[in-house]
Amino acid sequence: MGHDAHAEPEKKPGKLGLLGKAYLPAIAQGLLHTLGHIVKWDHNTLNYPDEKRAPFPGYRGEHRLTRDEQGREKCVACFMCSTVCPAHCIEIVAEEAPWPDREKRPKIFNIDMMRCIYCGMCEWACPCEAIELTEVFNIPVRTRAEKIYDKERLLSN
């Protein structure tokens, strides 16, 4: 057979191909980057629970029901928060209020914090600012039932 000028040269075993040559600089760069982090020793580790991280401004944490100037719950059981909640984690049962300035108040007000996505829509929807999200986070519990907050717990926060 004749010699073809456009034929590819034979690959020799043991030599790095073009693909291998492209990976070596990236691997070396990654190793140097990691080594830089090890040598720098400037870490972000906190000694929890002695040191606690401060939440960022606007952080939405645990829920709380607020009280008015007379110490009564502000909630008028309008169901706006439970209606707007995308996770459907708020349960409200209304009863007649004993005060002349409002018709209803919540007899039962439960929030299932295991279902809550902490979006803050309940806080935005409340016309009387009765529910708010605090900066409190990381409350450990042993059972799922402990993460269902009732009215008394929400008012005590």
In short:
With 157 residues, this protein is an alpha+beta fold. The protein is built from four helices and five strands; from the N terminus they run αβαββαββα.
Write the layout of secondary structure elements.
Layout (H helix, E strand, L loop, with lengths): L17 H23 L22 E3 L14 H5 L5 E7 L7 E9 L8 H5 L5 E3 L14 E2 L1 H6 L1
Antiparallel strand pairs: 1-4, 2-3, 3-5
Describe the fold and architecture.
Strand 2 (90-96) and strand 3 form a beta hairpin. With 157 residues, the protein is an alpha+beta fold. Helices cover 25% and strands 15% of the residues. The model has no long low-confidence stretch (mean pLDDT 87). The protein has a 3-stranded antiparallel β-sheet with strand order 2-3-5. A two-stranded antiparallel ribbon has the order 1-4. The chain has a domain at 63-156: Alpha-Beta Plaits (2-Layer Sandwich), CATH 3.30.70. The chain has helices at 18-40, 80-84, 121-125, 151-156; strands spanning 63-65, 90-96, 104-112, 131-133, 148-149. The chain contains 4 helices and 5 strands, in the order αβαββαββα. The longest helix is centred in the N-terminal third of the chain and has 23 residues, at 18-40.
The CATH architecture term of the domain at 63-156 is 2-Layer Sandwich
CATH class of the domain at 63-156: Alpha Beta
Number of helices: 4
Named CATH topology of the domain at 63-156: Alpha-Beta Plaits
Largest sheet: 3 strands, antiparallel
**What is the chain-wise order of helices and strands?**
HEHEEHEEH
Structural class per helix/strand content? alpha+beta
Count the strands? 5
Provide the helix percentage.
10-25%
Report the principal-axis shape: elongated
Q: Bin the strand percentage.
A: 15-25%
Low-confidence runs? none
In angstroms, what separates the terminal alpha carbons?
90 Å
Mean pLDDT: 87
Strand order in the sheet with the most strands: 2-3-5
Radius of gyration: 30 Å
